Protein: Probable membrane transporter protein
Amino acid sequence: MLDPITTIVVLIAVGLGAGTLGSMIGVGGGIIMVPALTFLGLPPAQAASTSLIAVTSTSVSSTIEYSRQKRIDYRLGLTMSAFAVPGAVLGAILSESVSVESFKLYFGILLMFAGIYVLYKNSILKDSAAKKRSMAYAAVFPATFGAGIIASLFGVGGGIIFVPLMLLVLGLTMPRAVPTSQLTLMTTSIAGIFAHGLLGHPDYLQAAALSAGAFAGAQIGARISRTTKDVLLQRLLGLALIAVAIEFVIDWFASR
Structure:
């Protein structure tokens, strides 16, 4: 176990990297922060809620920068938020009943899907124009409610669902989907934090350390995303997420 000062330094660094990557590809930094908190020994509800505070920092920072760039579809982002927010409250309540072992299995599966999505994001973007009407438009909002549950239950923000929905079903381009996703992430995460806070879940000191790094990282990521071709970065991140997913699932099997 790390000493308190080292833990804070590590969390700031984790938040910086997670905020940068999360802002660049629009999936939220929670997919990086939650594994770090879990490996530091936090129980599931505390890890999820602590990460969610930092995810909010990332999404607020990104939303500010993307708003300056006039890249956000506010009507869509707020409409999706109306469905995601109740899901976030429900996710916080459900997190109380998830054991460490079950959390590792479920989060490992989530990370596996996130890693595959990140790896194939460019293919999804290329195919989105042809497929955007192949799924019922009405499916977007129930799926957004589900994304709210996942965001709050696991502390990941929900971007791994919001962005594909915007691309594949609504036909948005990536430069529009990622900024709009950040707005929805922000409102969903705030609702999740409120619910988790009432239940006494977050570690606010660790959340502050993560948030400090994540806020700065999100600004960096939002600016880099305008000019950087991030194919290599996507592949490295996707492979890393899959590797962590495998580790979580192996830990689950070992605990049985």
The chain has one domain: 4-255.
